[in-house]
Each structure stands twice: as structure tokens, then as C-alpha cells.
Specification:
The complex is a heterodimer. Chain A has three helices and five strands; from the N terminus they run ββαβαβαβ. By secondary structure, chain A is an alpha/beta fold. The longest helix of chain A has 16 residues. In chain A, helix 1 runs parallel beside helix 2. In chain A, 34% of the residues lie in helices and 29% in strands. In chain A, strand 3, helix 2 and strand 4 form a beta-alpha-beta unit. A five-stranded mixed sheet of chain A has the order 1-2-3-4-5. Chain A has a single domain, classed as Transcription Regulator spoIIAA (2-Layer Sandwich). Chain A starts with a strand and ends in a 9-residue tail after the last strand. Chain B is α+β, with helices and mostly antiparallel strands. Chain B has a single domain, classed as Histidine kinase-like ATPase, C-terminal domain (Heat Shock Protein 90), CATH 3.30.565. In chain B, strands 1-2-3-5-4 form a five-stranded antiparallel sheet, covered by helices on one side. In chain B, helix 1 runs antiparallel to helix 2 and helix 2 runs antiparallel to helix 3. The longest helix of chain B is centred in the middle third of the chain and has 22 residues. Chain B starts with 9 loop residues before the first strand and ends in a 5-residue tail after the last strand. The chains are: A alpha/beta, B alpha+beta. At the A-B interface, helix 2 and helix 3 of A face helix 1, helix 2 and helix 3 of B.
């Protein structure tokens, strides 16, 4: 079963996933993201180092999060994605919008 | 019954409830089978499209009704994968589905585009409660 850890410090939140970002995980993660946004996070960093599969539900959640952040002048970043997931997001024209980077090219929001 | 183009390396038939948990377990089984059969080149695309079609069948076709089933049949050999998913719903008018890419900030509606990106060929049955997808083992998308 996939899981996630959300760590927030002021306006910065990092979400570390363990396992796949798919329809089964989305409801719980969505609630956690809503909470971190309500607590003032405007910079969200998703680490998908341990994620093999991203389905359309997971993509929808990332897009919805990006949309929410855009409304408050915030930013999303998705890092350490596998080559398969990077290609998927590029083909779906989401890589630029979600600020996606692949393995070994981490660019931290925290500087 | 669907048929692979050559001698089948993998042949699997399953019927599950319209449950995300059962979909997840079935997709994990598919992933393991493909990797064990040295079909790594098709593993990501196959699992992605299996998930998409199973979820569509369960959520949209069967309206999330746990009493309704979604069935999956998959055959694979070294040339590619044939995947067929059927739900117990009334189908939909697939002929009118727009194949254009949704706006990048759209939260939903990407299923048809995923099929087009990763499958060499797709077919719906007449009423639209069954999809058949052919995925080659060459480089994806």
C-alpha cells in the first residue's frame, strides 16, 4: 500500500511518496494537501523517488494542486521522477506546468 | 477471447469488483507478470492503460457499484500486449469523444489521450462497455 509523509515549515511543504500515485491513494493525499494549503503553504515539493506508477487520477491531483497554488501566487515542483513518468508528463504537456525533474537532477525549492 | 500475434508468453483472465483496492491488486499482478516474462519495455504502458480502463469501467461504466464486475483479459508475447477490459454498464458514445488534448490545467478527461499515446490500436465494442488495446514492446509513446 502506497503512503506519504507531509512535512511543512512555514510556507514550504514537502510531500515524500512511498509507492504509486494512483486512484487508491488520491483521496487521502488530497485531504492532506488541503490541510497543508490551509495552514499557509504556497511552495509544494513532491518527491517521487519511490514512485513507479502515476495514473490519470494522480495527474489530476497534481494539476488541481498546481491550480490552487497558482491562485495564491505559489508554486509546485515534482522531483526525482522515473524516466517513464517523466516521459508521460512530457507527452501530456504537464512537465513544464508542474516543474518536473527526473532522477539525479534535484532542484530544491528551498535553495 | 483475444489472441496474441505469436505464442503467448502471458495469458491472464480476471474478474473483479468495482473496487479501487481490487484494481490496484490486479495491476500489481500484471506488473509482476510482465517483468517476470522479460517484457519490461511494455510494462509501464500496459499497467497504465490497464489501470485507466479498469478505473473507467468501475467508476464510469459500473458507477462504482461494488456488485458489478469489471473483467480483464490480457495476452502478451515478445511482440506486444493485447488487453481487453469489459464492464457491466450501459456503455457510452465513444464515437463522439473528443480526441483533442485537454487544456493543461484540466483536472480530468485524459483517458482517451492516454490510450492514443500508449496504444498502437484501440477498439470499443458497439455499445462502449468494452475496450481492447494493443501495445507493442518497442519504445513507448
Amino acid at each position: 500500500m502506497a503512503s506519504y509523509v507531509v512535512e511543512q515549515k512555514d510556507k514550504h511543504s514537502s510531500i515524500k511518496l512511498t509507492g504509486d500515485l494512483t486512484a487508491e491513494l488520491v483521496p487521502g493525499l488530497q485531504a492532506a494537501l488541503k490541510s497543508t494549503l490551509e495552514q499557509g503553504a504556497t511552495e509544494l515539493l513532491f518527491d517521487l523517488q519511490d514512485t513507479v506508477m502515476l495514473d490519470s487520477s494522480g495527474m489530476g491531483l497534481l494539476i488541481a494542486t498546481s491550480n490552487s497554488l497558482s491562485r495564491v501566487g505559489g508554486r509546485i515542483q515534482v522531483i526525482n521522477v522515473s524516466p517513464d513518468i517523466l516521459q508521460l508528463l512530457q507527452c501530456m504537456r504537464l512537465a513544464a506546468r508542474l516543474n518536473v525533474t527526473g532522477y539525479a537532477s534535484k532542484e530544491s525549492l528551498h535553495g | 477471447m483475444i489472441q496474441p500475434s505469436g505464442k503467448a508468453t502471458i495469458s491472464l483472465r480476471r474478474e473483479i469488483r468495482s473496487s479501487l483496492a481490487e484494481i490496484h491488486l490486479l495491476c500489481a499482478e500484471i506488473r509482476a507478470l510482465l517483468l517476470a516474462a522479460n517484457l519490461e519495455n511494455a510494462a509501464f504502458a500496459t499497467e497504465l492503460l490497464a489501470r485507466e480502463s479498469l478505473c473507467n469501467g468501475a467508476i464510469h461504466g459500473n458507477m462504482g457499484n461494488l456488485d458489478k464486475k469489471v473483467s480483464l483479459e490480457i495476452c502478451a508475447d515478445q511482440t506486444g500486449v493485447c488487453l481487453q477490459v469489459t464492464d457491466e454498464g450501459n456503455g457510452f458514445n465513444w464515437r463522439t469523444q473528443c480526441s483533442a488534448l485537454r487544456e493543461s490545467d484540466s483536472v480530468s478527461g485524459r483517458g482517451i489521450h492516454l490510450y492514443a499515446l500508449y496504444a498502437d490500436r484501440m477498439e470499443f465494442n458497439e455499445i462502449g462497455n468494452q475496450i481492447t488495446l494493443w501495445i507493442s514492446t518497442k519504445a513507448n509513446a
